[in-house]
Amino acid sequence: MAWVVHDIEEAVAFPAECDRLADRAGIEFLRMGRRQSWAAVGFMGLLVAPICAAGVRTTGRSGQYRAVVAGLEGHVVTHALSAVAQRRYTAGVITALTVMWPGARLARRELSRSGHPLRPRDYFAGAALLLPAAFTSQVLARLVQEGARAPRRHRRSSTKRFSGRRG
Hints:
Blueprint: H1 2-25, H2 34-57, H3 63-86, H4 93-113, H5 120-149
Helix pairs in contact: 1-2, 1-4, 2-3, 2-5, 3-4, 3-5
């Protein structure tokens, strides 16, 4: 649930953040619209939701679930560092610190209680899973958005009707 709340903040705030970055870097490609932002969040959700369900089903034995929990903690750190480095609000930092971090700490405690504590390899696995997934989600969202903007070719409708006779 913490991930969902956080993703809402990110999806809403990320387009403005990307505009600032594009203006600062002079790279137009970095711009992102609302639809692309929501699509990227949705693609990540398609990955994370079933992994979290597997974590519940296996009471924490799922290595992918432990990787996602560890990756969630790492994600919080990236938000905090980004806001500190830029000395301002950055997309997602509010819910990263107030919702995701406590949620990740709770999940970590539950994993320990169930006999499946997070280990250093889970943090590496989380980065190996979630970093490429975030990048892929952004690329897919951009492709979907560009595909939606591409002009559609319409087939000509034939005015001849089939008469039932062969040729």
